[in-house]
Amino acid sequence: MNTYAASTDTTRYKRLRVDETWIGGAYAGSGAGGGTTSIEAEAGTLNGSAVVAACATCSGGAKVRFIGNNSANYATLTVSAATAGTEQLTVYGEVDGTRSFFVSVNGGTGAELPLTGTSWSTPASATMNVTLNAGNNTIRFYNNGANAPDLDKITVG
Question: What pTM value is reported for the model?
Fold first, then answer.
């Protein structure tokens, strides 16, 4: 099926069909209540020493390193939810051993999320529930007291 129509096609002239939309490295999705939304860490806002690094085993070919060990080093990702409610947040990262993220939604109190992995080149994941508002929500990943794992991506839904 074509995703466009030429001006010579009189039955479909001025009609346009879009199969998918990419926004900041993630599919546009409805968020809460509408399936799973995936967001690459490198599409987020990075602060302090947090930096994007190449990663052959990560989903988007990159990850965010140097989160934590200081209150200035964190990453913030934005996810949109169609409706308010509790959703499952799965965090994907890389770590050798166990390190923790603290996860804060919309400026709320952070909850600890440990991530355990076998190497800095093998993806690992951990899951928690988060409460989202309808509309845009910010999810901050940090660890003020220790180094956090490297952050690959998140899924919400």
Answer: 0.79
For residue 34, name the pLDDT band (cuts at 50, 70, 90).
low
Residue 107: CB partners within 8 Å, gap ≥ 6? 138, 140
The Cα–Cα gap between 40 and 60 comes to 7
Do 112 and 152 contact (CB within 8 A), yes or no? no
How far is 89 from 155, CA to CA, in rounded Å?
Answer: 6
Structure tokens at 41: 């860490």
**Structure confidence by residue, pLDDT tens digits, 64-100:** 999 999 999 999 999 999 999 999 999 999 999 999 9
% residues pLDDT > 70 (the chain) = 78
Q: Distance from CA of residue 111 to its chain's centroid?
A: 17
E strands within the chain? 22-23, 26-27, 37-40, 45-47, 51-54, 62-65, 74-81, 85-105, 111-132, 135-142, 150-156
Contacts of 142 (CB under 8 A, 6+ apart): 67, 68, 71, 73, 74, 75, 101, 102, 104, 110, 148
